[in-house]
């Protein structure tokens, strides 16, 4: 019973001193100065990785509606990334398409 009382007291203290988080305004990710838009039903799945091996973190973006994967090369730096226009990842000259479900 004593342990339960201690646990409940600790939870009360944590909750009573918790602060409401404050977030900055949202920022659109841009490519060539234009917000990235995957279109209606796009449901993008972003992933940051050095895809081209140049030491800079690039953007891979999976598209739900077509199952394609966009590659946005980082032409800036890791601390101030600038993404150029995308190309679709390809296998043997054909855009990769990943099915869902």
TrEMBL record:
Residues 1-18 form the signal peptide. Keywords: Signal. InterPro entries: Integrin_alpha_N (IPR028994). This is VCBS repeat-containing protein.
């Amino acid at each position: 019973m004593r342990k339960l009382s201690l646990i409940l007291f600790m939870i009360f203290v944590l909750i009573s001193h918790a602060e409401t988080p404050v977030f900055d305004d949202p920022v659109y990710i841009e490519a060539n100065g234009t917000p990235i838009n995957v279109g209606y039903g796009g449901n993008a799945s972003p992933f940051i990785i050095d895809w081209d091996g140049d030491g800079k973190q690039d953007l891979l973006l999976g598209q739900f509606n077509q199952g394609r994967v966009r590659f946005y090369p980082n032409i800036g730096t890791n601390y101030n990334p600038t993404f150029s226009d995308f190309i679709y990842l390809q296998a043997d000259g054909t855009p990769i398409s990943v099915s869902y479900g």
